[in-house]
Design brief:
With about 70 residues, the chain is mainly α. It is about 65% helix and about 0% strand.
Length: about 70
Amino acid sequence: MNTERIVRIVAGFFILMSLILGVQDSPLFQNSNWLWFTVFVGFNLFQSGFSQFCPLEIILKKLGIKESHGC
């Protein structure tokens, strides 16, 4: 598994969990402030598409996970 795939999996998981915890109709609702975490993850994905700066990818590279080299 490469860094790009792990970033996508983690981002998807964080978005789904923050929605589950932040939407009032959810059975696991905690607080609507969890939706700000969804905004943070979405914005980070958006900006990394332009700037290619992704904090998680930097961490994964330091842990020795191999980089992706195209599709």
